[in-house]
Every structure is written in structure tokens, then in C-alpha cells.
Write a structure and sequence with these properties.
The complex is a heterodimer of chains A (274) and B (318). Chain A is mainly α and 274 residues long. Chain A is 73% helix and 0% strand. In chain B, 78% of the residues lie in helices and 0% in strands. The chains are: A mainly alpha (274), B mainly alpha (318). At the A-B interface, helix 4, helix 5, helix 8 and helix 10 of A face helix 1, helix 6, helix 7, helix 11 and helix 12 of B.
């Protein structure tokens, strides 16, 4: 059965979700080609209205809004993807190591995660970013570490069920080291739930970074980023102009798309009937 | 000891340990600062002598452990230290703003909790109906929206295009209650919309989970009327998960206020924290973090205790 004959079985929300993700990926990859102006290029006066030269007008410094929206797909989404990947690498690795080694290693990681999760994430991020400063690497590392706690919990919970399987026992008896156990026995079997979790965590990271950027503590100018674009142009809203809502809508639409796909994937993989 | 008081005491003990460890983490976080507080206050151009003098007057030349104990003792007395930016006691700045934040969160909760539970119950009982499917898509879309998106849409339509509510939450101690409720309506509504979607989905999941349990099936098979199944069999057991959902979402509300307060220039704790981060006023950020974390841990603890205390299996233990 080819993919085209299976397409009609997908619920409409999932098709919309995949279409949105594809569109954003396209904008992120080809931003440099399709954007009419440069990312930080000042092309006209401040807050120009929509026109044939500047389709969505210009921002508070006279940069082309459409071009910055397109570059924002690359910057904002790119940083969120990197952060989520890092969170999965750290959280997943720690979770599986805790499962395989058990004992005090497991206790140490689990109690550490308990403490980190007891502090509200946005508040903790604000505290850490005050201390470390707001460069992009520290933003990525702070959010990734805070989010790795949730990945750790999931990886550990799923891994616990697998580590007691006979084939893991057999590998242990063969005398394989913990590295073999993690990468060849456990990791392939914990992938499906982790993939669904990746979508959820991406949404969470994406919204957190956008919120921090909106608050002025995330991605810093002149990098085109959707959260800070809303912040910079928000004063236009009091004149009834909808342009500042566009970057916010860009964030919302991508999150909706990913959530639609993840929701469907979770229901399918968990076999829930509701 | 009877199981119920014992379990509650255990949770309270765990909660206080968590709070203690979190206070250590927040204290240590500030220790990570490159240089130290004295260097931060005076800047890079200060002479070593002035830095040393300030370090001594702030007590920074003491070992970390004794400084932690002094700080903790101060916090316990309600003394949160001095703001670096304007040298005022933090407790004075924080107290009014904490009250404002609690008011806003309570305002949102009063609207959100009954709405979310009613809608969640309806979605669970009429599972797979058009109402349930619509509710799923709408709530899933809604929780995907960043708070500032919702806030600015509300401002655009309710404050700018039609001048129903003010877009700036301009409140003071002498504002009367009706005026207060009008001026803070848009921030409260923004919070309500976000938290209702979350709470409704969680309520629905909890109830569906419960309705799938064997004793409900048994009651149905015995031929008991559907209303009686819900009221006598399902509801007493549903109380625990619902109370849990409410408390968890209240914890979310208290920290979710940060962005909303900034959008509406609402004079609350969240806005104070964001301003202090921008000014790198680290002692105020530290105090705000501790308060937010304390409220968050407290509400999570409350969720835990209430779900134990309302669980029929524990209440009627043999």
C-alpha cells in the first residue's frame, strides 16, 4: 500500500498539522532565497503600512516585516529544535544510565530531577538567565537542562519496563557493558514514546523561548525572532494595527500544527479508543 | 497510627524538605555569579578597596554556610534583604505586588474552575459526540497559543476596536472593587482562557479513566440508572482527580501570570521579577524566585494532600 492510498485515513487535523510543519520547514530552509530583503537591513521609515514594496510593512526600525518573519522561522524554530535535541540527549542519556546502573546513580539523578522540577520552569529560567546573561548559548543550555528533567522521567519510566526483559538479561549474562545495553538493547525499544514526547517537548520549549524573548530575556536583537518582534512592535496594536500579531500568530500556528500531529500519534500508539 | 494522618504528615514532611532544598538551590544560584554581589553593584571600574569595603558591609566575606543561614533566618522573619537597584527593603516592594498577583490569579480561578470542570465533565460523559470532538480541537488549539498572542488579540478587539475594557491595568490601593474588576478583566480573561483549556482536558481524561474502571462497568451491568452510577459510584472517586487537577492548574496560574502581567503593565510580582532581571537586580530576583517556588510547592503539596484526603479507599480503610 503506497502512501497516497493511506492518506484519506488520516483525520483532517493531522493533514493540516503536517502541511503546517512542511511549510515552516520550507520557510526556514529557503528564508535567504525567498525573503525580499535582508534580515537586519533597514529599508524604509519606521512602521510603514502594508504596500506592494513592503507586503507586511516595516517594523519599529524600518526593517521589512515579511523578511524578518521568514528569517524568524530559521532563528526561532531552529533554536527551539536545537534546545529540544539537547534536552533529549541529556535527559534521555541520564534516564537510561540511571536505569542500567541503578543504585546510587539512579537515586542521585532522580532526586536532582525532583528538586529541579519543584521550581516553576519559567521562574527558574529567569533566575538562571539573570546569573548567566542572555547570550543564545546560555539560553539554549538553561532551557535544555530544565526540560531534560521531564525527558529523564519518561526515559527512566519506559526504560524500567525494558531493563527487566529477558533479552536484556541475556545481554548482561553475555558480559556486555552498560554502553552496549543502552545503545543496542534499550534505546531501540524506548524510541516510540520518546518520539511522541519530542513533539510535545518541542512545543513547550518553543513557547518558553518565545515567552522569554517576548519578555526581553531570550533571543536578543538584531536577530529576527518572533517573540521579540511582538515586543518591539506591540505599540502598533493600540492604533488598531494587526501587524504585530503576525509573529505571535506564526508561533501559535506552528505549535497548533505540531500538537495536532502529536495528539494523533499518541492516540494511535497508545491504542486509546476515545 | 491511622493511615490518613500518617500519609498527610509524610507529604508535609516531604514538602518541607523540598522547600528547604529549593532554597539552597536558589541561594547557590546567586553564588554562581561571575565576581560577586559587591562587584555587581559597583561595576568593573571600582577599585579593589571599595569592593572589599562593600563586601564587608554586605557580609560577603563570611563563609557561604553562615551567609545562607543568615539569609534563611531573615526570610523566616519576613526580611528578604535589600534591593540592589534602589536600596529599599525587598519585603516592602514585594508585599503589595504579591497581593496584586494573588488577586489576579484568584480572579481568573473563580471564573476558570467552575467553567472548566463543567465543560470537562460534559466532554467525558458525551465522549465522541460532536461536542467532545469540537472541544478537543478548540482546547488543543488554545493551549498552543502563546499567552501574549491571546492577550493582544483581546486588547485589539475589546480595548482598541471597541472600547469596552482598558488595555492597561492601572490599579492602586484606593481603587474600588467594581473599578478594580473592570480594569483587571482583560488580564484575568487571558489567564482564564489558557488555564480553562488545560483544566478541561485534564478533567476529561481523569473522568474517562475512572469510567473505564471495572466497578463502574459492574454497576452499569447490574442495571443501575445512569444518573445513580455517576452520582453514587463515580463522583466520590472522581473528587480526588478533580481536586488534583484544580490545584495543579492553580500552581500553573501563579507562575503563568508573569507574561500576562507584563503585557497589561499589571503591578504584580511577575512584572517586578522581569524588571529586576532586566536590571540584574539579583537579590530581588532571588526573593521573587523563592516566593514563586514556595507558592508552587505549596499548591502541589495541597493537591497531594487533598487527593489523599478525598480518596474513599483511604477514608474507609479497613
Amino acid at each position: 500500500m503506497g502512501p497516497s492510498s493511506r492518506l484519506p485515513h488520516l483525520p483532517p487535523t493531522v493533514i493540516v498539522g503536517f502541511a503546517i510543519i512542511a511549510l515552516y520547514a520550507f520557510a526556514a530552509v529557503f528564508a535567504g532565497v525567498i525573503a525580499p530583503y535582508g534580515e537586519t537591513q533597514v529599508v524604509a521609515g519606521e512602521f510603514e503600512p502594508w504596500s506592494s514594496a513592503y507586503w507586511l510593512g516595516t517594523d519599529n526600525l524600518g526593517r521589512d516585516m515579511l523578511s524578518r518573519l521568514l528569517y524568524g522561522a530559521r532563528n526561532t524554530v531552529g533554536i527551539a529544535v536545537v534546545t529540544t535535541l539537547l534536552a533529549f540527549a541529556v535527559g534521555g542519556a541520564a534516564g537510561l544510565v540511571a536505569v542500567v546502573l541503578g543504585g546510587w546513580v539512579d537515586q542521585f539523578f532522580s532526586r536532582l530531577v525532583d528538586v529541579l522540577m519543584a521550581i516553576p520552569q519559567l521562574v527558574f529560567a529567569l533566575l538562571l538567565l539573570t546569573i548567566l546573561g542572555t547570550a543564545i548559548p546560555s539560553l539554549v543550555i538553561v532551557i535544555a537542562l530544565l526540560d531534560a528533567t521531564r525527558v529523564f522521567r519518561l526515559a527512566r519510566a519506559v526504560g524500567m519496563n525494558i531493563v527487566v526483559m529477558d533479552y536484556v538479561e541475556a545481554a548482561k549474562l553475555r558480559g556486555e557493558g552498560w554502553r552496549w545495553l543502552v545503545f543496542h538493547e534499550i534505546l531501540p525499544n524506548v524510541m516510540p514514546p520518546l518520539v511522541a514526547e519530542f513533539g510535545l517537548r518541542f512545543c513547550f520549549v518553543f513557547l518558553t523561548i518565545s515567552a522569554l524573548s517576548f519578555l526581553g530575556i531570550g533571543i536578543q536583537p538584531p536577530t529576527a525572532d518572533w517573540g521579540s518582534m511582538v515586543r518591539d512592535n506591540a505599540s502598533l496594536i493600540s492604533f488598531g494595527d494587526t501587524t504585530p500579531l503576525l509573529p505571535a500568530a506564526a508561533i501559535a500556528i506552528l505549535t497548533v500544527g505540531v500538537n495536532f500531529v502529536v495528539d494523533w500519534f499518541l492516540h494511535r500508539s497508545s491504542g486509546l479508543k476515545d | 497510627m491511622r493511615p490518613l494522618p500518617k500519609m498527610i504528615l509524610q507529604r508535609l514532611g516531604l514538602g518541607s524538605i523540598t522547600l528547604f532544598v529549593v532554597s539552597v538551590v536558589i541561594f547557590l544560584g546567586v553564588e554562581l555569579l561571575p565576581g560577586d554581589l559587591a562587584q555587581q553593584i559597583l561595576g568593573q571600574s571600582a577599585t579593589p578597596e571599595t569592593v572589599a569595603a562593600l563586601r564587608h558591609s554586605l557580609g560577603l566575606d563570611q563563609p557561604a554556610l553562615s551567609r545562607y543561614l543568615t539569609w534563611l533566618a531573615g526570610v523566616a522573619r519576613g526580611d528578604l534583604g535589600m534591593s540592589l537597584a534602589n536600596q529599599r527593603p525587598i519585603a516592602d516592594i514585594v508585599s503589595v505586588r504579591l497581593g496584586n498577583t494573588v488577586f489576579l490569579a484568584a480572579y481568573a480561578a473563580v471564573i476558570a474552575v467552575p467553567t472548566a470542570i463543567t465543560l470537562g465533565l460534559m466532554a467525558a460523559l458525551w465522549r465522541n459526540s460532536w461536542f467532545d470532538k469540537l472541544a478537543n480541537v478548540v482546547t488543543l488549539t488554545w493551549i498552543s497559543f502563546p499567552e501574549f498572542f491571546v492577550a493582544y488579540i483581546l486588547i485589539l478587539f475589546l480595548a482598541v476596536r471597541s472600547n469596552v475594557f482598558p488595555s492597561i491595568a492601572n490599579i492602586g490601593p484606593e481603587t474600588t472593587l467594581p473599578v478594580l474588576l473592570t480594569r483587571t478583566f482583560l488580564p484575568a480573561l487571558t489567564l482564564t482562557l489558557g488555564v480553562t483549556a488545560h483544566m478541561m482536558r485534564m478533567t476529561r481524561a481523569a473522568i474517562i479513566n475512572l469510567l473505564a474502571s471495572p466497578y463502574i462497568e459492574m454497576a452499569r451491568l447490574k442495571g443501575i440508572a445512569p444518573a445513580r452510577v455517576i452520582l453514587r459510584h463515580a463522583l466520590p472517586n472522581a473528587l480526588a482527580p478533580i481536586v488534583n487537577v484544580v490545584a495543579l492548574n492553580l500552581a500553573y496560574l501563579v507562575t503563568g501570570v508573569v507574561v500576562v502581567e507584563v503585557v497589561f503593565a499589571y503591578p504584580g510580582l511577575g512584572q517586578l521579577m522581569v524588571d529586576s532581571v532586566a536590571k540584574r537586580d539579583i537579590t530581588v530576583v532571588q526573593a521573587c524566585s523563592l516566593i514563586f517556588a514556595g507558592v508552587y510547592i505549596g499548591l502541589n503539596l495541597l493537591a497531594d494532600v487533598l487527593s489523599i484526603a478525598t480518596n474513599p479507599r483511604i477514608l474507609h480503610a479497613k
